[in-house]
Structures are given as structure tokens and as C-alpha cells.
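Workshop exercise sheet. Pairs work together: one partner reads the sequence aloud, the other fills in the structure field after running the prediction. Swap roles for the next sheet.
Pair: D.N. / O.F.
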Amino acid sequence: MRKKGKKGGGSFIKQAAILAGAGILVRIVGFLYRLPLTNMIGNEGNGIYGAGYNIYNFFLIMSSAGLPVAISKMVSERVALGEYTNAKKVFRVSMTVAGSLSFLCALLMVCGAYGVGRYCEMIGNTDSMWYLSIGCIYTLAPTVFIVGIMAVFRGFFQGLHTTVPTAMSQLIEQIFHAVFSILLAYLLLDMGVEYAAAGGTAGTGIGALAGLVLLVAVFYCTKKQRDIEFSQDKGDYRVQSFKEITVTLIKIAVPIITGTAIFSMTNLVDMIMVNSRLAAAGFAPNKIIDLYGQLNGKYVTLTTLPVAISTAIATAVIPSIAASVVRKEKEAVQSKVDTTLRITMMISIPAAAGLGALGTPILAMLFPNYPEGGVLLQVGSFSVIFLSLSQISTGVLQGIGKVKTPAFNALIGALTKIPFTYILVAIPFINVVGAVLSTTICYIVCSLLNFRALIKATGVKPDFVGMLVKPGFASIAMAAVCILAYKAVYMILPINTVATLVAIIVALAVYFAVMVFIKGLNREDLQLIPGGSKIIPLLEKMNKL
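Structure field:
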């Protein structure tokens, strides 16, 4: 049986850090596979792929987004009380609920795609992105069901205070996803770009199935050990009914699903409104798909990568914040919130500055066959900062029990975005850049509202100097040197990839040097960053900590 001491804060932080590390690797692999895929299917293929994937993502969120958190919370509470029969029943009930809901969502996807296809054929609109993305939707529909089942296993394991199975399954899922997406897209490319895009989305389902197989294998391999622990059931309690567990599961999951679904709906709003407003601006169907492909396949892919890395690192601190709030340790809450926000901004602000400074060269390096879209990164790089702030403040609010607040704030942000998208995208010389601007506005609104709620709920006042001013100053210096370095190298050796890589290396060195000089780093931050603890003795000798 697991010792009680293992359930303490240190163990919990360690488990969260394992999940955070896996999250970073998953996002990196996910980013890397999009490079050859985009160079194969181009902007048009990215547009078709993105349309199908956004619809899939919405149904995925509606069916299973809040389940791992809800199930892990319910299982953990029952295990802590020694109610192992109820813990096992939570697993069984969750499997029934998740399986039914995810199957229904998968069926709706198939029926909806069929209906849209028939309608497009009737009106002769078979060159639209909607019609061309039907194959992607068909191949993604089964994945909704597979991921719904996976969510139950992941939540159950996390409820038993182990994130290793979840981390392993995420890595296996992404590796299979990447390999088969590229392979199937390549094999189907000769049939047309829409078939190649469908092949790319089919890899998602294969990856999910591989992740599920791993979880099932771990579940049965650990059954004997789990049975020994569950044999300690105290027995003097009431076994909960199916209805009770279902209602509790829904109450916990729905606010999380709602908040996540609202952000997903902003992508659907972009997909619907960008297409219709670009058409209103006079763009041809193939150009509309091309522009949407630049937005979804390049801008979204590149700007969400640093966000995922920064929030994954900061995730390791969030459970500890929740524990300190419960114990009413105001100073500890203040310190942990500051650390979380500083780490997030120390990564996000320079990432935004770098994307803004080298947007066009980066796209030319990563997508040499289809380098268009640099202006989207230059204009939209600012959104990285506020998307990071929005996500990390949402995580902190959920960690202290305010699960409804970020959902409501996300709704306000999404509603703010709609009129800006509607107006700006229809202006021909702005076109798809309007969607980038409206998205930035959405995240600014969400961030401000979340921060107001966070300060009100905890009483802490974020360290804005350490969080924004110092990383901001270092990032401005970094961006200036970065641009000069790129131009200098390109004058000597006019090869874009070489100049871009040298500029990025120089930029990282400058950013770190400036942050050290202005004492923008501290011990707590470095201890949470991989490899950061090795730098601490050096900075102490330099009197910079």
C-alpha cells in the first residue's frame, strides 16, 4: 500500500513535473511533424486540415475535456478516505458516461459531415473548404471515441497519484500520430491535396489508439498491485449509486469543459467568419483556403508552441498554490504565484519578441516550399504573451477552486473577438491579419479579467516588475540584436537558414545575459527550469542572485 507520506506536496509536485515534462516533449514532436506535412500539402492543405481539425477539437472538448480532472479528483478523494469500492465504481461509471458521450459526438461528426457534403453537392459548391475537409472529419470522428475512453484511464491513474501512465501514453500517442500523419499524407498526395490532408488527420486516430493500447496494458499489468492496495477497504461506508457518481462527475467536469469549449469556439468562429468575410472581400475560394491555411497551420502552430512550453513548466507549481490557499498561507501563495507568472513570462515574452523580429525568415526556414505568412507572425506575435497569461491565470484560478470564473471570462473574451473579426477580415488589405488582431484582443480581455479575479480571490499582488518589466526590457534588447545579427550574417553568407539559426542563438545569449545583468532571474525560477539548478552556483559567484 502507498505510504501516506508519498501523498505530500513534494510527491505531488514531482508527479505534476513528470506530466509537464511529457507535455513539453509532446508539443515539440507535434510541432516538428507539422513541418514536413506543411511542406507537402502547402497552405491549401493546411486550410483543409485545419478546418477538419477544429471541428474535431470542438467535439473532443465537448465529450471529454474535463473528464481527467474530474475523475482524478473523485478517485483521489475516495482513496484518501479508504473508500476503494467507490473509487472503483467511479472508474466504471465514468467509462460508461465517457463512452456513451464520446460515441454520440463521433456519430454527430459523421452525420454532420455527410449532411454538409450533400448540401455542397446540391448547390454546386464542391470547391469550398467545407466540402474539401469532409474526408478529414470522417477520419477524425473515431478518434473522439478513442480519446474519450483514454480520458477515463488517465483520470483514474492520476487519481491514484501517478502521472507516469498518462505521460507515457501522451508520448506514444504523439509519436505514432506524427509518423503516420506524414506517411499517410505522402501516400495519398497524388490523389489530391484534400486526400493528403485526410491522411494527415488519420494519423491522429492511429496515435490515439496506440496511446489507449498502452494505457490498457498498464492498467492490467498493475492490477495485482492495485488489488493489494484496494484490499485495505475500510468497508464502513455507503456505496454510491450510479446516479450520484454521474451527477458529481458532471458538476466537476462541466465548468472545465465550458471554459475550454469557449476557446475552441473562437477557432470555429475564425473558421466560419474568416471564410465568409474573405469571400465578402472578394477573394476566390482557393485563395481563401490558402489564407486560412497560413492562419491555422503557421500562425497558430508557431505561437502556441512557446505557450505550451511555458504553461507546462508552470503547471508543476499550480497544485502547490492550491495547497497553500487551503492552509491560508498568504505569503507562500504570493511567492508561488509570482514564481509561476515569472517563469511563464520569462519564456513567452522573448518568444513573442523573437517571432515578431524574425517572423518571415523563420517561416522561410521551416516551410521553404510555402514560406508565406510572415506578416501574421509579425503582427500576431504579441498574442503569445496574453495567451500565456490567460492560460496560466486560468490554471491558477482552477487550482484555488474558482473553476467557473475563467470560463465566464473566456466567454467575454470570445464575444469581444467576434465584431473585430467581422469588420477587420472583410477589409481587403487587412484580410486574415484581422483574425490575428481580434484573437490578440480576446486574450488581452481574458488576461485582465482573470488577473482581477485572481487578486480578488487570493489577495496577492503579482510582481509586475519581475514578471513583465525585466523580461520585457531584455526581450527588446534581444530583438534589436537579433535583427542586426540576421542582417549581418545574411550579408556575409546569403543563406536564410544559416542567418536565422545564428540570429536565434545570438538572441538567446543576449536575452540571458541581459536578464543576468538586471537580476531578472532568481533561485526559485532556475530550480523549476530544466538544467537551471546548474547555473545557480555560477550566478552566485557573480553576485547576480
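Discussion prompt: Residues 9-64 form the longest helix (56 residues). What would you look at next?
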